[in-house]
Amino acid sequence: MFSRLILHHRDAAIGIIAFAVALSIFLMMVWRALRMPHAQREALARLPFQPDLPSRRHDDAKTTST
Amino acid sequence: MPARKITVEYNDRIVRQFLLASVIWGAVGMLVGVFIAAELNFWQLNANVPWLTWSRLRPLHTNAAIFAFVGNMMFAGIYYSTQRLVRARLASDFLSNLHFWGWQLIIVAAACTLPFGLTRGKEYAELIWPIDIAVAFIWIVFAVNFFWTLAKRREPSLYVALWFYIATIITVAMLYVVNHLSVPTSLTHSYPVFGGVQDALVQWWYGHNAVAFFLTTPILGIMYYFLPKAAERPVYSYRLSVVHFWSLVFVYIWAGPHHLLNTALPDWLQALGMTFSLMLWAPSWGGMLNGLLTLRGAWNKLRTDPVLKFFAAGVTFYGMATFEGPLLAIKSVNALAHYTDWVIGHVHGGTLGWNGFMAAGMTYWLLPRLWNKPLHSVPLANLHFWTGLVGILLYVSAMWTSGITQGVMLNATTEHGTLLAYPNFLDTVNAIRPMMLMRVIGGALYLTGWFLLVYNLWRTVRGAQPVNGTIEVFADESAVAEPRHGLWSGLLGTPVVFCALGLGFACAWWFGRDLVMLFGLLGTLVCAVLVLAHFEARRRQWSDWYDRLLVSALPFTLLTFIAVAAGGLIQIIPTILVDKAVNVEDRRQIPYTPLELAGRDIYVREGCYLCHSQMIRTLVPDVLRYGDYSRLGESIYDHPFQWGSKRNGPDLARIGGKYPDVWHLRHLEDPRSISPGSNMPAFPWLLSNPLDVSTLPTRIAVQRRLGVPYPEWSDAQIADLVGAQQKQIAGGLRDTGAYIKPDKEIIALIAYLQHLGKYETVAPRTAEARSTSVDP
To answer: In the prediction, which pLDDT does B2 show?
Structure first.
């Protein structure tokens, strides 16, 4: 069923169709991301800032030394 | 009963190990890089020692930079951030240790094999098959350890950095396995299962996405964790980071064919590669701006903080490299830039500027925290930054200048466009010599900066007490605070079902004929209408599915895998399934004789493909310089393909018969005796090494199994064929006054070179003829 792919001119359409499929899925994800509630965004963005004891110790040490 | 608190200790030992390994291997990889850059200026530096020769060391440099330096840095960053983002210790200390020591063993094995010519002959995929199996195994260990940790997590939400790590793990596994499929002929040698154009496509699907999913997505995950931590403020826009992730995952995987523009690759694939490469501009710059804007309000800290300096410069280099990449993927720009130093400048801007600076920033940030001691010297770290920055800027500007000079000179024709303005390839080599020297200086400066980091690290770590991070959690705390998808509810959610249905109908429409095509078209339209109707009626259901997906690691991983696999499959499957001996336009390659095949293996062993392409592009200057453009069928039996990606020397696709045997002999023995001013290394050992023909029968048998039309020769017949051709070539050389024993490697290599460009003419079967023929 792929026999026409290399030689047939209409195969150029595959690129366009693939583009359209990827774009539509991508747009769905973008749409979902844009509609993400503010509180949820804030909570997710703050995930890296959960306390980590030794690093706090280090930061304290640095603060007191300066 | 009141909840009981317990203290969880993170496994930071493994982070320290990977961090130190990254710093050490980084120094080694960069040192080899500076050395081989110097060899391009001073060919004598190899001292006629095979394993010190440029083409043997170049794979060592690239593999060390990618897999040893960035690989170890990536593992350190992933393990550090993942534990903290999921509030759980790594799932298994045993797997962590196995991962670390296994990976280092692989690096050592690579360093012990590549300089000795044990290679598969495919860029960034050179490692021989036993090491490949080890890589796949250790990657699985890494994946199990990572996903097991996710399964044990106490934080239900998956921060966006974890998404990037997931995409990295599954995509690299897929790329690596497919591109390394080989049939062994001995413990140290194999032939890839793909050949010719298929091999080229699979190779650059892998090669491009190794950059995307080994050198970019994990480092982006690291950026989204470490940059906010260093700037002490959340990421500028979490929404943008989500958009960044999905767009990279969907778009990156399609862009591989842009490495093969203007070649014999089918045109629709070239169009696909170029289109998706251009689409990458937007998400890449979105990600870069998100990183830089995270520093809003903290820019004043850059004056004194080396960590932020490195991060800011690293992200800027990411933006620069991802602007340049799509630019180079435009066909007309690529016609000028491909095979030149411009591409070398581009990849070093990415590797040294983006990966290297992010690695340095992460290392300086982690050192005090992992050893609980302030950094030995902040001024020294700042000095590292400025030394490295000047170094990389010198490097990339030299390579841009060099590449554009090369491209312009090689493509220049006289005013009527019928003659080359610079017919001698060496004219371009001599024109770019100052830039090649500048590259050595730039690289050496960057390396000097790295040694400053090594010293700073050593002084910081010396006498310090390693410390593991801890966190207090409730003993009965579990991550199942939010509803999650099971595997099937995630995979069979309404959006996925509609997506699969739509794709199924679309495939019937694209590939089917007559009624099937009509059925596919109608089905696609009906599906589109149903999606809209269902979405309007069950909006809440769609939202819930997506929200649950964000906290469900397994379905999320599988859907990401499907997204990345689709892009590759649509490109690769058609070229694999077609009857390759028929789809060859008007020419078909004549298989090599046994001696020529042995010569080809020597060509691959010596890494000739790293300087010489075998692909005359469909461009007037290429045709004027090297002969008729290369057809798809002329390399159809090449396992591996040898189209190359860089021309430090001229193309060899039609070198066969262009010069007499003695020309090749003298040229390989001492290139400057034939081409004064050449910077090609001499290969004198080929004149003294005896040719090993003991494995030839096995190699021919494997080639036959892969589809190369060799007759069923016996071992004795193969030996006779080899002997006869050896005597013929050696006799011819003797007649011209060159005395070489017939059983030397040089004879086989000459036989191979003289075969290049030989083909048989065939009548192409057109699409129309095909459609009228009866398919079984």
So the answer is: 59
Domain contains A19: yes
Gap between the Cα atoms of A54 and B466, Å rounded? 11
Burial of B620 (0-12, 13-18, 19+ CB in 10 A): middle
Residue A21 belongs to a domain? yes
Instruction: Assess if residue B774 is contained within a domain.
Output: no
Q: Which of B160, B137, B132, B158 is nearest to B147 (CA)?
A: B158
Q: What is the pTM of this model?
A: 0.88
Q: What is the pLDDT, as a whole number, of residue A22?
A: 65
B112 occurs within a structural domain: yes
ipTM score over 0.90, yes or no: no
Residue where the block lists tokens 């770019």: B432
Instruction: Give A-chain residues touching B508 at CB under 8 angstroms.
Output: none
């359409």: which residue's tokens? A13
The one-letter amino acid code at B263 reads T
User: Looking at the 3D structure of chain B, how many domains does it have?
Assistant: 3
A18/B272 CB distance under 8 A = yes
A vs B, Cβ pairs < 8 A, gives: 153
- Using a CB-CB cut-off of 8 Å, the residues of chain B touching A33 are 239, 242-243, 246
Report percent pLDDT > 70 for chain B.
94
**What average pLDDT does range B677-697 have in this prediction?**
95
Q: Which residue among B551, B577, B603 closes a domain?
A: B577
Residue A21 pLDDT level (bands cut at 50, 70, 90):
low
Is there a domain that residue A29 lies in? yes
> What's the CATH code of the domain at B216?
1.20.210.10
Confidence band (pLDDT; 50, 70, 90) for B773? very low
Question: Residue B772 above 50 pLDDT?
Answer: no
Helix segments in B512-593, DSSP class H? 514-537, 539-549, 553-577
Residue B770 lies inside a defined structural domain of this protein: no
Residue B549 pLDDT grade (very low, low, confident, very high; cuts 50, 70, 90): confident
Q: Which residue of A has its CA nearest to B277?
A: A19
Q: Would residue B346 count as lying in a domain?
A: yes
Q: Does any CB of chain A come closer than 8 Å to the CB of residue B574?
A: yes
Domain of B630: which CATH number? 1.10.760.10
Query: Measured between alpha carbons, how far is B485 from B552 in angstroms, rounded to an integer?
Result: 6
Interchain contact, A3 vs B764, CB within 8 Å: no
Q: What is the pLDDT of residues B617-656, one digit of tens each?
A: 999 999 999 999 998 889 989 999 999 999 999 999 999 9
Q: Which range of residues forms the domain containing residue B498?
A: 487-577
Please tell me which of the candidates B368, B499, B510 has its beta carbon nearest to residue A17: B510
Q: Which of B311, B352, B313 is nearest to B445 (CA)?
A: B352
Kindly list the residues from chain B whose CB atom is less than 8 angstroms away from the CB atom of residue A42. 234, 238
* Shared domain check, B500 and B457: no
Q: Which of A42, A44, A59 to mutate to test the interface with B (most CBs of B within 10 A)?
A: A44
b vs e for B231-261, b when ≥16 Cβ sit within 10 Å of the residue's Cβ?
A: bebbbbbbbbbbbbbbbbbbbbbbbbbbbbb
